[in-house]
Amino acid sequence: MHVDKLEKLWIYIIGFIIAGMLASIFYTAFAVSVHPPSNVETINSQRLHLTEEFAEDNLGVTNNPDGSITVRMVAGRYGFYPQQIEVPAKTPIKFRFATPDVLHGLHIPKTNVDTMVIPGFVSEVNTELQHTGDLPLFCNEYCGLGHHYMWSRVKVVDKSAYHK
Ligand code: CUA
Predict the structure, then answer these.
(1) I need a surface site. Which of 19, 57, 76, 143 has the fewest CB within 10 A?
(2) How close is the Cα of 140 to the center of ligand 1, in Å?
(3) Euclidean distance between the first and final Cα of the chain, in Å?
């Protein structure tokens, strides 16, 4: 079968592009831990403030006995609660988010923390923050007029300086 030279060239170029895309997907999945959020856990959003886990007193950072961290936050129009959290660097962190109202997005730039927060569900993201400093956590799903003001601060401190 005769294949035109130029056509052959484009077959190679396209093959190369597809291989590059697949390689980047596998690389980010296995080496950088970028996964689609797959935690399916339901919650009654209308009674969120009354549930034990997302009651006001229970929000924020919990230090687990094994040294890992669990962060519980509520994403509601128009803010994340609590407004600021402090976590240690280079420590396994499990973020758990829920919303009492509408769909929100949740993004910490340059990390794998990027998920939707859907009414009726708990969103869970596991991460480890490598660098100290302040990181913004903001909403990246349009949720209403105050969407642009919806953000929170994550203070990442050195592991040795972290005391609670
Ligand atoms: Cu919440 Cu946009």
Answers:
(1) 57
(2) 6
(3) 72
Contact 123, 97 (CB under 8 A): yes
Alpha carbon 16 to its chain's center: 31
pTM of the shown model: 0.76
Per DSSP bridges, beta strands 133-138 and 151-157 are: antiparallel
pLDDT digits (tens, 9 = 90+) for 50-104: 777 888 888 889 888 998 999 999 999 999 999 999 999 999 999 999 998 899 9
Question: Which residue has the least CA distance to atom 1 on ligand 1?
Answer: 104
Cα distance between residue 157 and residue 93, in whole Å: 13
> 105 C-alpha to center of ligand 1: Å?
6
